Amino acid sequence: MTMIKAWYAKAYPTDDVGSTLDPAVTFTDLYNALQVGTCVYATLGGDADSIVRERVFAALADFLDVDYDHIYNLWFNKKRRN
């Protein structure tokens, strides 16, 4: 699957945070992290913030052909349990 850093740099070329993201992390890695409750920010690496998280969640939802709420709720519900 697509590397998040490469996707982010292309989708948001003027956002400097993109250059700080972990170059090895894929959208599959992110989805797996969401399923087990791993910290999203640690998974993305670098200076990822809530804006980056929202953008990446929206892209993940598009890649998986699911509603954005599915991705957000997966993260939010796991976050509340940890």
Describe what this molecule looks like in 3D.
The protein has 82 residues and is mostly helical. The protein has one domain (4-81). Helices cover 63% and strands 0% of the residues. The chain is built from 5 helices and no strands. It has helices at 4-11, 27-36, 40-44, 50-64, 68-81. Helix 2 (27-36) packs across helix 5 and helix 4 (50-64) crosses helix 5 (68-81). The longest helix has 15 residues, at 50-64. The radius of gyration is 12 Å and the shape is globular. The N and C termini lie far apart (28 Å). The mean pLDDT is 94.
Could you give the count of β-strands? 0
Give me the secondary-structure category: mainly alpha
How many domain regions?
Answer: 1
Helix content: 55-70%
Strand content: under 5%
Put simply, the count of helices is 5
User: What are the secondary-structure elements, in order, as H or E?
Assistant: HHHHH
Kindly provide the radius of gyration, computed on alpha-carbon positions and rounded to a whole number of angstroms: 12 Å
Give the uncertain stretches in residue-range form. Answer: none
Kindly summarize this structure in a few lines:
This protein is an all-alpha fold and 82 residues long. Helices cover 63% and strands 0% of the residues.
List the helices and strands and how they pair.
Layout: H1 4-11, H2 27-36, H3 40-44, H4 50-64, H5 68-81
Give me some keywords for this one.
5 helices, single chain, 82 residues, mainly alpha, globular
